[in-house]
Task: structure prediction
Amino acid sequence: MELKSTAYVILGLLHLHPMSGYEIKSFVDRTTRFFWAASYGQIYPELRRLAEAGLIEGTSKPSGGRRRVEYRLTAAGRKELRSWLQVAPEVNESRDEALLKLFLADAEPEAGIEALEAKRRFHAEKLEQLREIEPVAKAGPNRFPYLVASYGIAHSEWAIAWCDEVLAELRAELSAPQTKTKAPRRSA
Amino acid sequence: MELKSTAYVILGLLHLHPMSGYEIKSFVDRTTRFFWAASYGQIYPELRRLAEAGLIEGTSKPSGGRRRVEYRLTAAGRKELRSWLQVAPEVNESRDEALLKLFLADAEPEAGIEALEAKRRFHAEKLEQLREIEPVAKAGPNRFPYLVASYGIAHSEWAIAWCDEVLAELRAELSAPQTKTKAPRRSA
DNA sequence: CGGCTCATGTAATTCGTTACATGATTCT
DNA sequence: AGAATCATGTAACGAATTACATGAGCCG
Result:
């Protein structure tokens, strides 16, 4: 069948329970966005394609007086989801601008510190968000979402610790007088 | 000026020493690809744009008898690189298909194990590659590339440990005939 | 009444990959 | 001679984001 991963996000979420495109979007924003985001520009066209392929089925289920189409998995859709899950995932290389700046920071050493601080801030914020999600995931009927939340938390904790360690070293070094860098600049 | 990150990869590498497009590509493949890949389809057009913008300068430097254009940073290019480095990086959410499958694996629990194993394999392989690079980076004149290599190594080691831990739990549970988890549910 | 949220969608643009095309030179 | 590598590029395609467009119901 060869659908893209984003299509399987939709199939996977509809496996939990029937939803509208709007609900899929907000669900994604609360959960999978940490490792797989999706925008309306993907979701609505994809819903149409999946429906045409017979993997999902949409029925009009207005909420209050608002028009609303609720989609649910068909038997074929469930089968497609399962067979995709059984194939080993390809883990793709991600782009990390902070690491890129860190890598190139010999041209401007204070930028290395800035990059690490930014990475730390990012993980600290992510950690906060995940800690809010975690108990919800734990209480849910499925175990794997909780597992993934745990992964995210442990990962961010690890990253923060690493940043702190290296930042301490770097700061000590850059503030040491014998280094030949420009005057120590303190940024916001 | 507002160039894309890939343009700064080029500026950053040319800051190390003058290079041809071909050399930039192979340099990227040996180093930054772990956090920022680049293809010929980006590199050559970008070299042209950067040259037009006056940030780099290309001169014909045939190697042997092969035509070859070597690019070097101009003063403006160096300045542009520095000012970009000083801006806090935006850390972008990456896409991780293994985590996605793990998240959705309640529809097919063995797939969760498969996903974790794939993630582990990926990190094990990356670790091997990084361990080859590390001593080279350490020996080099710049400290930050080495720092980034260390990050990659520590990160993969952490990820492998996490996968192993969770895999052990999952395997124990799935092979146990009766666990206290909710009775085997049929989907939906 | 006015702003927020629910709800659905499209068009333009950006960014990047893959495949192709070409050709010279060096190595075995 | 033939394969591998050096070297430069383009065209087609793909995936995703952003911005825009529209409208209705809900809440204070």
